[in-house]
């Protein structure tokens, strides 16, 4: 019998497994779902890549970023392993080719984002494919107590059941014990099948340097000068990325800014230049680095505070993957602290917003009788207009809808495009000869059920259902088949989510308080996470040891000898400047202007102390976009100040009036 090592060598060309890999692979091949917690850059992906080659059917990989997928696909294709992804950047023909390869079994690994499950066509397709294993990369996104929580990930356990996938592998680099337990429970992974390797990286030097804002750039340049090789400088905001990169360029450094505000082509080019060594320093928001497999990054600088210990660990983990000495520097000051906290406060929906959301569900729910004679209460919604209507930002809105699903109030049925239109490219009557026999009657009915405006036609779904018994899915299946055969062009827009509403569980007031309690708890947990990080940076014990212990690794040395604390430098943050009464001198004027403006532009909107505070601290809300509130003089005037201090001042001001 061929051993695992022999297979590893013949498939991937590696001589031996790294720590934790073999145990994880053996568990999976024995049929045990597993969770692998390995630090950044220590070979998590190999666990599923190797296992997939040994399993009979498809391995389905959920990954949060297209860039991550493309990196892994390039690696697999270099090893001759047939893998593919379905993503939004592909053309019709490309995704069609991938689906055919999955159907005929030639593609062993398919990578998708979790949102792909909402796609009507993909759901119809994947139901007929036998799947051996579900892999969730960056799996901490599943846990509400982890960082980077993505609400759609909560639905993965039900997708696993729906598609009867026997085996699950969860992969993450950053999960505390609590998050590990939470993840494992959701997929019924037994504690003995959680594989965690050591977190301690002996080649990383951690240095925390107290700076004030006036000498940050000078300190940054001296750190770059002291280090040879490539570096990443992390900042919080896109504007800072541009400013710092420009400053470095004018000082003669090879540096470029990278953030989510750049188009994908530009981002790809910047990343490729960095990987190829053409650019030495990338100044980036946290959008950069996921899945960046550059082994020789010598310096990671946090110009601004990271978002959490988890983010910090993941970001410094990009240094020195070739195991050579590398430096991780934090330019420590509390000035960006308010910005970090304010992001959290801006995301929390107010009780009246939650109330509006629930009203919208009850008001817009329609009774629909399906062909199988049961009456369902259905609610249809489009996320952008719902966000505008409720004044809840997109991500928290998604979170609330997923919570309503978990509370059994809603069930996501399917997603469809409200506007479907088609244009014939070939002979529609001749095409009848090429259509499968069992579709003949349906196709003829369909030809009669299209209404034309000039050359574009729209299928009348109601008529087709009532007269020919064709469901929406039947109609689309035939149209997609015709489009795949180039007989017509199919266009769709207006993505609409359809939910079944379980009215028996819909207790309005109870739900408002339950959901509000949930979002408050999440807000408090996020704020506490930031406070924990600030405490962590000021500890007087070895930083490498504390970092390992935070993630449940008890085996790191007590004194690493290569962190600022071991060198006798304990960080003390300079106290932030005190705010006197003059700080708020024009507040009454800003508040008056905003209140007056909002009541004229959007009379139904309730002006609360919280809404005013979000306006003054420059936290974008759907209602501000809708009424163009950015043009008012008070928008964002206090963005440097802490949310709670502004809220206190506003509350006091409103109390006086």
From TrEMBL:
Q: Where is the Helicase C-terminal domain?
A: 219-362
- Keyword Hydrolase annotated: yes
Catalytic activity, EC: 5.6.2.4
Question: One cellular component GO annotation, for this chain's record?
Answer: cytoplasm
Q: Which UniProt keywords apply?
A: ATP-binding, DNA-binding, Helicase, Hydrolase, Isomerase, Metal-binding, Nucleotide-binding
- SUPFAM superfamilies reported for this sequence: P-loop containing nucleoside triphosphate hydrolases
According to its UniProt record, this protein's enzyme class is isomerase
Gene3D superfamilies for this protein: P-loop containing nucleotide triphosphate hydrolases, Winged helix-like DNA-binding domain superfamily/Winged helix DNA-binding domain
The keyword Ligase is assigned to this record = no
The record's section on Pfam families has: DEAD, Helicase_C, RecQ_Zn_bind
Q: Which reaction does it catalyse?
A: Couples ATP hydrolysis with the unwinding of duplex DNA by translocating in the 3'-5' direction
Give the Gene Ontology MF terms in alphabetical order: 3'-5' DNA helicase activity; ATP binding; DNA binding; four-way junction helicase activity; hydrolase activity; metal ion binding
Check the record and name the InterPro entries matching this protein: DEAD/DEAH_box_helicase_dom (IPR011545), DNA/RNA_helicase_DEAH_CS (IPR002464), DNA_helicase_ATP-dep_RecQ (IPR004589), Helicase_ATP-bd (IPR014001), Helicase_C-like (IPR001650), P-loop_NTPase (IPR027417), RecQ_Zn-bd (IPR032284), WH-like_DNA-bd_sf (IPR036388)
Q: Which residues form the Helicase ATP-binding domain?
A: 25-193
Task: Output the GO biological process annotations, alphabetical, semicolon-separated.
Answer: DNA recombination; DNA repair
Protein family according to the UniProt entry: Belongs to the helicase family. RecQ subfamily.
- According to UniProt, the name of this protein is ATP-dependent DNA helicase RecQ
